[in-house]
Amino acid sequence: MVVTALVTALAAAAGRSAAGCLLVAGAVLTGQLSVGWCNDRADLDRDVAAGRRDKPLAVGSLAPRTVTLAAGAALALCVPLSLAAGARAGAAHLLGVGAAWAYNLGLKRTPLSWLPYALGFALLPAFVTLGLPGRPWPPGWAVGAAALLGVGAHLTNVLPDIECDLAASVRGLPQRLGRGWSRALAAALLLGAAVLLALGPAGPPGRAGWAALAVTGPMAVLTVLPVAGHEGSRVPFLATLVMAATAAAMLLTRGAGLA
Fold first, then answer.
1. Partner of 10 at 20 to 30 A CA spacing, among 16, 18, 24, 101?
2. pLDDT per position as a tens digit, 55-114
3. Contact assessment for residue 156 and residue 244, using Cβ atoms and an 8 Å cutoff
4. pLDDT of residue 229
5. Could you give the C-alpha distances from 152 to 78, 149, 158, 200, 221, in angstroms and in order?
6. Using CA atoms, how far apart are residues 221 and 49, in angstroms rounded to an integer?
7. Which residues have CB under 8 Å from 203's CB, separation 6+?
8. Cα(173)–Cα(158) distance, rounded to whole angstroms?
9. Domains of the chain
10. What is the pTM of this model?
């Protein structure tokens, strides 16, 4: 829901019509649903072993076949909804969705676990702009910032579950790096995304840009520094979430400069 809302708002900021924004919302929502359901189906055995009570499949309230069919149906709907924005825009979005499926079905267990996030997020501004009149490619600062935001989100998302992942033989990049290095890398990437979004577009950053950098800098410090006496503290994790939310908000404020 967060990704769908973010991309739809980005489409509106970039000048897409109301109908165009609805198509974007439908394409992104069905794509995200397919990815989420595919992930839960692929992780069924792992979630059962981990005793996950928040997963309907793991507790047996849904049949695996139901989730498999739902993921397939959502993906089937995503294809025409994506292509309705144009062949190039649709191809960009479907490539990102395909990368997310590849992550679910195997890449999450490899050192390349970051790649689907980088590719998927980088292609979201392209999906928005390639559906505009003239089919313009988004500026490099937007693509780069979105890619950094995606990889930072990947590292942040994994932080609370690294030990459980390792026990289940999931050895993606953050699991191999460990909690400390993953926190540091997430902070660097999200700070880089904020800098690109503030300084990449033509003209001065403005108050919003400087304010975002003023928030992101201290959050980066909180992310990297250990909390004395509280090795399991959620402060670093929450700090990375604040950084990711700030970068996403900056991307929206820069939406008018995408085309």
1. 101
2. 899 999 999 999 999 999 999 999 999 999 999 999 999 999 999 999 999 999 999 999
3. yes
4. 42
5. 26, 5, 10, 19, 15
6. 36
7. none
8. 10
9. 1-111 (no CATH), 139-259 (1.20.120)
10. 0.86
